[in-house]
Amino acid sequence: MCIFGAKVPELNNSPIKAIAFDLDGTLLTSEKQITPRTIEMIRRIAGQGILTVIATGRSLDTAIPYISDLALTLPLICYNGACVRDMDRKVDLWHDTMSLEATRDILSIPRKPSVHLQLFIQHALYFEKGGEYADHLEPLSAQLGIVADFQSLPTQPLTKAMFIGPHDDTVGISQTITKHFPNTLDVVYSHPDYLEVMPAKINKGTALARLLALYGITAEQTMAFGDGDNDLEMLTWAGHGVAMGNASPRVLAAVPRKTGRNNDEGVADYLESFFVPGTKFIPYSL
Description:
- The chain is an alpha/beta fold.
- 30% of the residues lie in helices and 23% in strands.
- The strands form three sheets. Strands 7-6-5-4-3-14-15 form a seven-stranded mixed sheet, with helices on both faces.
- Strand 9, helix 4 (140-144) and strand 10 form a beta-alpha-beta unit.
- It is globular.
- The protein starts with a strand and ends in an 11-residue tail after the last helix.
C-alpha cells in the first residue's frame, strides 16, 4: 500500500508500529551530532518494518542534514507540526499557515531590543538586519536566512514565528499572545530563550496523529521520544511516550517513562532494551 508516494512498511510482530523522534535535545547531542550507535539502532528498527518519523521544531532546511545522516526515507514533521514533508517525493503532505491578520498581529507586538524575531514563510526564513546570528543553537540559520524589512512581508501568511531572547524578556510576549489571540495562535517554548508561535491547535502531537492515521497506526501502537515543552503533546498522545533524562521539568513531570540524557545515548539505550531480546535496561532516575 502506498500513501502520497511513500510505501507503508510491512510491520513486524511488535506492538509498536511507529516511532517519532525529536531532534534537538533528543537524537542530537550538545555538539549537534547523532551518534553512530543511535543511527545504527534507528536503522535496525526501520529494518524491522517500523515506521520512523522525525518531529522537530526546526525548519525543513535545518532538519535535512540530520535526515541525511540517518540515510532513511522517512516522513518529516517540521515547524512544530505546521508542515509534514514526504521526504521521498520531496513534497509537503500539508503545510498549515496563519491567517494574514494573525501575521500582522505578530508583527505589531512590542519587543525589547534584546529580542529578535524570525519569520518562516513556506520554507524560507526571514530576519531583520542585526538578527542574523540570533539563533545561537543553529548557526546554519544565518547562512540560510534572508534579511528583510518585516513591514513588506504581511501580505504573506506565516508558517511559524520565533522570538529569540532572554526568557524574562519574552514572557510578556507569550502572555500577550495567549490573552489576545487564544483562538488563532498557540505559543510554546522549545528552549528557555526560544518562544515559538504557530497557528492555533498546531503541534507535534496533532501532526503525528494526522500522519499516522494515513498509515492506519494508532496512538497505542506509537512510541515517541522528546525533551522539550514543544514535545509534550506528542509524548502524551503516543501510547508509549519516553522523556529524555535532560527533558524540561514539565515533560519529566508529565511523562512516566524516562530514559537517559541525549549526551548519553538515551534513545539508543531505550530502543535496544525494548527491541533487542536479552538487553537489560537501567531506568533513568532523577
